[in-house]
Specification:
The chain is of the alpha/beta class. The chain is built from 10 helices and 12 strands. Bound molecules: adenosine-5'-triphosphate (ATP). One of its GO terms (cellular component) is plasma membrane.
């Protein structure tokens, strides 16, 4: 098969004035105040926020292994939602079914009213996805990957160019846009993949382990971009093993163990009076004592 020919103008991209602000997502009112009369007094009540993502009865089996055993979650617009769980808990399997990459055995996923499996074109239009294991077209340059991502989402070329410039500046990738993505470091690959997921300003970003391999300075940068996106009404759903990071940046969380949600709610509700890490370890079945490894303490030479 011949390599795809992509029309990009990297030189032009490089000279565009970089703007660090990422364009805000599709505008959604973050919190709506409504007037309500209670016993003669007028008080402001927060209106119910729109549900962006509704996961109902999601199940996935691989032969005799049940990876996801009936997950229900409802995520509101403007949430920064973290999914945490031990290795093999079913986080990636769940997010793959949410984003239309893996067909569920049972259950439904509805994104902004559109069923991901019954109405995939509409549902996927409102989503930006950072998949597990970075399934990217890595024989493209960074500029080409951003260009393709924008054009495939139906953006005008001029919009793709200006957003590519904004994103590459915001993610610190301006000097690497002409290099093949396959030659990027793990952290750079993650950043270009997140940038590609954001280029069409989706209402919902689903990010599987977005900060794995990303250095602390870049992570702080990416977090700031995501926080501004959420403040503008966008919604982030991300998985991570890094408890203090999730605790710091997410307002809501779900703890998934053995394919089931053991706790979900606001960060304060799930954490209680503990740290998220202690609560997580408690829900995940406690720490394992490292016994039976005495051979490791007697060196073979
Ligand atoms: N394609 C597959 N074929 C067979 N088993 C699979 C497949 N994908 C996942 N599994 C199994 O499903 C379970 C859940 O895996 P999953 O990758 O969703 O976990 P995870 O919570 O994302 O783990 P980690 O934190 O280690 O990435 C595991 O037992 C895994 O071995």
């Amino acid at each position: 098969m011949t390599d795809p020919v992509v029309e990009t103008e990297p030189e032009e991209l490089a000279v565009v004035e970089p703007v660090v602000e990422v364009e805000p997502a599709v505008e959604i009112e973050p919190v709506v105040e409504v007037e309500s009369v209670v016993e003669g007094e007028t008080v402001a009540l927060p209106a119910a926020r729109e549900t962006v993502l509704k996961i109902s009865g999601l199940v996935k089996r691989f032969d005799d292994k049940t990876a996801v055993a009936g997950i229900d979650l409802e995520i509101e617009a403007g949430s920064f939602f973290g999914i945490v769980g031990p290795n093999g808990a079913g986080k990636t399997t769940t997010l793959s079914m949410v984003t239309g990459l893996l067909r569920p055995d049972a259950g439904t996923v509805v994104v902004h009213g559109a069923d991901v499996w019954a109405n995939p074109v509409v549902a996927k239009r409102t989503m930006g996805v950072l998949p597990d294991r970075l399934r990217l077209f890595d024989r493209l340059t960074g500029a080409q990957l951003l260009y393709y991502s924008g054009i495939l989402h139906g953006l005008e070329k001029s919009v793709v160019r200006s957003r590519s410039a904004d994103l590459s500046a915001a993610f610190g990738l301006e000097d690497s846009l002409d290099r093949l993505v396959s030659d990027y470091s793990a952290g750079m690959t993650k950043k270009i993949a997140i940038a590609a997921a954001m280029i069409h300003s989706p209402r919902l970003l689903v990010l599987d382990e977005p900060f794995e391999s990303v250095d602390p300075v870049s992570a702080a940068n990416v977090i700031e971009i995501l926080q501004k996106y959420v403040a503008a009404g966008g919604t982030v759903v991300m998985s991570s093993h890094t408890m203090n990071l999730i605790e710091r940046i997410c307002d809501s969380v779900a703890v998934v163990v053995n394919g089931a949600v053991l706790a979900t709610g606001t960060m304060a509700e799930v954490r209680g009076d503990k740290s998220l890490e202690d609560r997580f370890v408690e829900l995940a079945g406690g720490r394992k004592a490292a016994e039976g490894m005495e051979w490791l303490h007697k060196f073979s030479d």
